[in-house]
Write a structure and sequence with these properties.
The chain has 592 residues and is α+β, with helices and mostly antiparallel strands. The protein folds into four domains: 7-193, no CATH class; 220-355, ATP-grasp fold, A domain (Dna Ligase, domain 1), CATH 3.30.1490; 360-450, 2-Layer Sandwich (D-amino Acid Aminotransferase, Chain A, domain 1); 463-585, 3-Layer(bba) Sandwich (Glucose Oxidase, domain 1), CATH 3.50.30.10. The protein has 20 helices and 23 strands. The strands form five sheets. An eight-stranded mixed beta sheet has the order 16-23-22-18-19-20-21-17, with helices on both faces. It has a six-stranded antiparallel beta sheet with strand order 11-10-9-8-14-15. A five-stranded antiparallel beta sheet has the order 3-4-7-5-6. Helix 1 (7-20) packs antiparallel against helix 2 (26-38), helix 4 runs parallel beside helix 8 and helix 5 packs parallel to helix 6. The longest helix is centred in the first third of the chain and has 24 residues, at 59-82. The N and C termini lie far apart (68 Å). Mean pLDDT is 88; it is low at 458-468.
Length: 592
Amino acid sequence: MKEKVSVEEFKKFKEKVDNFITKEADTFYFRNLMESIHDPSYMKEVNRIIDYVNGKRTAEEIEKLFQMLRSKGESQFVIRDKATTHDDILNYSLRGLAYFCLVEALNENSSFSERIVSDIKKKYGDKYLDIISKIDKANLSVDGSKILTPEDVDLPNDEEMKKYLVMKRWQDKQRTYSMKRIRPMYPKELEYIGEPEPNLIRLHKKTLVKRATEDMEKEGIVPIEEIAKYYEAGLEPELLKIVGGKALGLAKLKANGVNIPETYVIPVKNSMKDYDFSQILDTSKKYAVRSSADVEDGGKFSFAGMFDSYLDTSINDITKRVEDVKESVNNARVKKYIEMNGLNRPSMSVIVQEFREPEYSGVWIGKDKSSGTLEWVKGSGEKLVSGKENPTREVWQEEKADIATTIEAEDKVGLQLLKIQNQLAGESEDVADMEWCILDGKLVLLQYRPVTKEVKLNKNTTLDNIKQNDAIFKGSPASAGEVLGKAEFYRNLSDIKQWHDGDILMAWFTDPDWMEIMSKSSGLITAVGGLLCHSAIIARELGIPCVTGIGSKAMKTIWGEKEMYLNGTTGEVCTAKVYKSTKKNKEVSGSC
């Protein structure tokens, strides 16, 4: 069993390699990171080598180091040449290449090689180029064999120049060795990736990415820590296809030190029908089994609530639930969402995540790097995202909430989420949609994704307490725009016998199964729900006006009306009669 390395250890190693290998040698940098994820023993070896050469080394010591690395690389190729299995041939080949690239980096593309040149500059000043030029001419070589001697040239033979000559000789050795051992591997790499690729750097990357994919598939169920390391190595676009959008978001959180539940991922191609989950999961715990499709939680399409997920699952039921989640790519609402947005059929990865009933749950959606909206409920977040309960809302601006009392977990939750959003965005202007909960008094993140549609910031409200006049009802302005037209109230989806396209839909709340009807509506009004529930997110993606959370009393007042006006920008709802009267007489308060 391979030794495990934490994300924190790998990040420290990555930083060390980043400072050691120069920016011009991206392919050497990437290969060292990927080989280190595949086999942590290699990471420790490279760590020792970098520490070793960062000390003061003689020309003789440098020569011995290069010889040792060449010997290690050649031994991998010798074993490879006798190997019979696909995995052995691949892995010994790539390890041999890693050692070759390490010599290349040490010799020409590292802080170590730069330091040798810098030492020569310091010692010989402006004359250093002239001296090096003479040394190069006096030591012309083929395969490391000298063909001219410096007998008639007065040249220095100090330690700095001896180091330089070691580096020069090994440039020739590497070139010759490459023709013999490295170049013949390129056709084999092309055969392995199964596609034409004329660019050698891209070829090497595709080879390493395919091996990483195979490694994850062999593992079956992959700890999020492993995926976080691949994310750190720069595989973000590739990971989206392997583990899906939700898992990629969790990997970003893990890589950035954000607190998430114990999480495992089943990659897209993996079938777990005969897998014994008790080998890796705690039989005394409950788990959430969640979707992570390759099209889900992206920058354009959220697929909010489209796929199936299951909370509070015992270990005996996980196999069945994994299959259910995978099969949900074929459900009717997904097919409709795909059809509406012109997308391809998704591929499904599955997340298995430790589940406990939280103290509070909520959603954050950013507007920019200094502001965003926070909504939360007590207990499970399913009530919030499904729109079954009106949440408390906080609007954050410049690290301050617009109300005096805010939910806290060690620090104000909104402030912590704003900082996490900006930490992950780095220098970009990206804003985040994050699901979170409070467990044991601490903030835990459950999901991270880019915001697909902007949410308009509004004053904080506990929506049940909104004061409404007798004619105009106020809810959350969930999706901008206004519409006046025929309306119909339905308590349940099963009540809809005949739908008239273009009507305004009124309901207590909607869930993903309402997708077909929502797509044919001109507007949406719900009794409960906030800015970040399913109804609101899908309405914004559909581009139809939506007001959520007008309250049960208001909905009972209007549910028999056949013509309504709603303003998704202001959050106001009224009957068509009131709207027309207001427009005519301008006597009714409010924008209706």
